Amino acid sequence: MSQDNNKYVPPKIWTQDKESGGKFANINSPTAGARFNKELPVGNAPLQLYSLNTPNGVKVNMLLEELAEIGVKGAEYDAYKVDISEGEQFGSGFVTINPNSKIPALVDHSNRNDGEPIAIFESGAILMYLAEKFGKFIPLSASKARADCLSWVMWQMGSAPFLGGGFGHFYAYAPEPLEYPINRYTMEAKRQLDVLNIHLKDNKYMCGNDETDYNIADMLIWSWYGQLVLGKLYDAAEFLQVDDYTHVKRWAEAIAERPAIKRAVELPLQSMG
Fold it and tell me: SUPFAM superfamilies, per this entry (predicted)?
């Protein structure tokens, strides 16, 4: 790294020559893979969830609790806490089911008598897998309803990194506040909120106005943007003027009142042992 009057000039070749700083500096590394040996606990339920109650983590909680709310059989699960601040996501057992070492990850043992367990990682993939497995909270046939659902699912997966890794990181977790990245990602976070606000002006849920239109798109998006406008993320509600997004607030408040969602955001997680 070269510096002139405190101005950063990128070197020709980047090397990790010092700690990155910020909240997660103790676990940040440019390499992947397991860092220590640790098997995952496995309970008796058909589904085994390894996660944390972060915005990404609660997505799976939400769907599993909604399935429980309507009495779906076979969707019973055990949930284990993966403490990402302590690096538990780099244990060998967890890396085996998620080579990207991010929460959440899920293993389906429902076929344990007939074949190998099925491991799924990435929150969007997990919700799509479970919704299609049980035929709930996703339109199954090729139709406008399915296209709408999948479009908003992919919107969330592509947009949320700008909110979490972009705005959230530089506003709440970086070692010092920096004007350019905070302005850059604040602008994008507010643009995304406006996308949702315009859409939800004429839609009770992300994909329509009937109760049957409530689906995994709502769950995925609410976990980030719903919690954001309800003041649950980054202590940033005033900074982002979230009350201006009246239609997002209405939608977020309605979903927050669902019994399954109340359970999901406070879900007790078992120790990894």
Answer: GST C-terminal domain-like (SSF47616), Thioredoxin-like (SSF52833)
- β-strands 47-51, 77-81: how paired? parallel
Domains delineated in the chain:
144-259 (1.20.1050.10)
Query: Rounded to two decimals, what is the model's pTM?
Result: 0.94
In the sheet that holds 118-121, the strands lie side by side as 77-81, 47-51, 105-108, 118-121
User: d(Cα 251, Cα 253) in Å, to the nearest integer?
Assistant: 6
Q: What is the pLDDT of residues 16-52, one digit of tens each?
A: 888 777 777 778 889 999 999 999 999 999 999 999 9
Other CB atoms within a 10 A radius of the CB of residue 92 amount to 14
Q: Please, are residues 230 and 240 in contact by the beta-carbon 8 Å criterion? A: no
pLDDT range class, residue 113, cuts 50, 70, 90: low
Spell 4-35 as b/e; 16+ CB within 10 A means b. Answer: eeeeeeeeeeeeeeeeeeeeeeeeeeeeeebb
Q: For residue 105, what are the CA distances in angstroms to 101, 180, 233?
A: 9, 34, 22
Average model confidence (pLDDT) across the chain:
95
Mean of pLDDT values over 247-265: 98
Computed on alpha carbons and rounded to an integer, the radius of gyration of the chain in Å comes to 20
User: Please, are residues 23 and 171 in contact by the beta-carbon 8 Å criterion?
Assistant: no
